[in-house]
Specification:
Strand content: 35-45%
Largest sheet: 8 strands, antiparallel
Radius of gyration: 20 Å
Number of helices: 6
Order of helices and strands: HEEEEHEEEEHHHEEEHE
Helix content: 10-25%
Structural class: alpha+beta
Distance between the termini: 36 Å
Shape: elongated
């Protein structure tokens, strides 16, 4: 490798991305033999494990108590929080065994998924993730606030979006009708470039990875005022932009 080649841009691992997706997801789908449940606001991550809260009177909860263990499939979808074309950014799929968590109370039935297979599906590829890597990963520090931050930027700061778009190589902006904020993590912000017949995405990198959402304004100002030469990476054209 030539010594003049730039170092690869830092990026979250697939396991970290999947953790972030699950932290941000408001709902997920849970399937076991003979049962399907759409769980809204009933899941969390703890010590690298996915825990779902089942209503104790539900058929699925009763079946799990009787069986002690059930084969399960969990699916979650990562949707862009702003109103754009083709909002699905990624999907997560986990299969494994569902068991009742220790010390389960009567009010709710916490169940733990022990994953056997874990996959992250993006517009470009399906990425298998080792269950041990999934268990050890941690979500991005901006994951639980990303949606609010992107919506605030889109709805209340069009001038900042316009200034950020000037950091995109001019050739990428040819024919662009509108620029929207698509994604945000500790490494940077992704902009969706909307063309009449297709979309493309471009990532602008922060000077250094952020430790919390409190550092976001400072990082953006650093890019806009030139104290950091924001490097734009091409995330590719998305004629359909659909995942799965």
């Amino acid at each position: 490798m030539s010594g003049n080649q730039p170092a690869p841009a830092p990026a979250a691992t697939p396991a970290e991305r999947l953790h972030s997706l699950l932290v941000a997801a408001g709902s997920l789908s849970l399937r076991t033999p003979g049962h399907r449940a759409e769980l809204i606001g009933r899941h969390r991550l703890a010590s690298g494990r996915l825990i779902v809260e089942l209503p104790p009177a539900s058929c699925l909860a009763r079946h799990l108590r009787q069986s002690g263990e059930l084969a399960a499939l969990v699916e979650a979808t990562d949707l862009a929080p702003v109103p754009i074309r083709d909002r699905i950014r990624a999907r997560a799929t986990l299969t494994g065994w569902l068991t009742v968590a220790e010390g389960a109370a009567d009010a709710e039935l916490p169940a733990v998924l022990e994953p056997a297979t874990v996959e992250l599906v993006t517009a470009d590829t399906t990425i298998p993730i080792d269950p041990a890597e999934f268990a050890a990963a941690r979500p991005d520090p901006l994951a639980d606030s990303e949606a609010d931050l992107l919506c605030h930027l889109n709805d209340h700061h069009p001038e900042t979006l316009a200034r950020l778009s000037r950091l995109v190589p001019p050739r990428r902006l040819h024919g662009v009708r509108q620029v929207r904020p698509l994604a945000l993590d500790r490494f940077g912000i992704v902009l969706r470039l909307e063309h009449p017949g297709h979309d493309s995405d471009v990532r602008l990198r922060f000077p250094v990875p952020l430790r919390s959402a409190d550092q976001l304004v400072e990082a953006i100002e650093a890019m806009l005022h030139g104290s950091h030469a924001a490097a734009a990476s091409d995330d590719g054209d998305r004629p359909g932009g659909r995942v799965g």
